[in-house]
Write a structure and sequence with these properties.
Largest sheet: none
Radius of gyration: 17 Å
Strand content: under 5%
Low-confidence stretches: 136-142
Number of helices: 6
Order of helices and strands: HHHHHH
Structural class: mainly alpha
Distance between the termini: 9 Å
Number of strands: 0
């Protein structure tokens, strides 16, 4: 747990790296072999950025920065900019991948939903479980 005290944003950075790999690799999970419904990739894009923003909100809250409107908007803009950068890099670098405005829209919607979920749920969860064993495990990260 000391690792997270030294470098507190490690979980968020790891999610950034996973998203970069999944966005820029040619076919990282062999998605061509999986036949889902039309637009399933948009749901996946939304879920990735929802996860990114929730983990980032967790790191902010865990470190005691609090959720001011300015911090939340800044974090949302960082996530949306990362989504835009990944789409631009997909169009410029990778073979077999292309930039898509609807993917960018799905990234942005997922980030917005993640911000609302993270900013609303995390403080309530921390307050609810304060003093329990679960909170002490989370508190060890501080």
């Amino acid at each position: 747990m000391r690792f997270f005290k030294i470098w507190p944003f490690v979980p968020t950075v790891l999610v950034f790296l996973v998203i970069a790999y999944l966005s820029l690799a040619e076919d990282p999970v062999h998605a061509e072999e999986i036949h889902l419904f039309e637009g399933a990739d948009k749901v996946v894009h939304g879920c990735m950025y929802l996860g990114l923003v929730v983990v980032g909100c967790y790191d902010l809250y865990r470190l005691g920065f609090g959720f001011t409107p300015g911090r939340l908007v800044a974090w949302l803009l960082v996530a949306i900019a990362w989504g835009g950068l990944m789409e631009l890099l997909q169009g410029a670098m990778t073979a077999g991948r292309s930039a898509d405005w609807f993917d960018f829209l799905a990234n942005s919607c997922g980030a917005l939903l993640g911000l609302l979920l993270g900013a609303w749920c995390l403080p309530r969860l921390f307050r609810r479980y304060r003093g329990t064993r679960l909170f002490h495990v989370v508190d060890d990260f501080r």
